[in-house]
Amino acid sequence: MPIGRLDHVNLRTTDVPRLVAFYERVLGLEKGKRPDFGFDGAWMYSGPDAVVHIVGTGATADYRGDQQLEHFALRATGLGDFLAHLRAENVPYQCGVLPGDGFGHTQVNIFDADGNHIHIDFPPEESADITEFTGT
To answer: pTM of the full predicted structure?
Structure first.
């Protein structure tokens, strides 16, 4: 049984609407159909795929650099437009290019409204000014 792709990530939050708004505004995901689990939450879609599941809880853990799940990653295209969008939305970011043959894609690192680390990977053939943006 070979594993295919990552299907989705599940995030816990004390503020479902705030996290939904972040993923809509910053990453362009759309809130969509979700089974009635009997508790608060939302499924955020990219096209036909629910890639981020948000679950309302009574507590959200503080971000720690030594936590077991340090980040999740998404793939995208349109690096320059995405960076301009982040600046317009005043979302701080740091970029890096993976070293070595066969890699070379650009990673854009951001944190969501609850402090979860996300990096968005862009193909190596895309280029843009990847200078860090610290927000205003």
So the answer is: 0.86
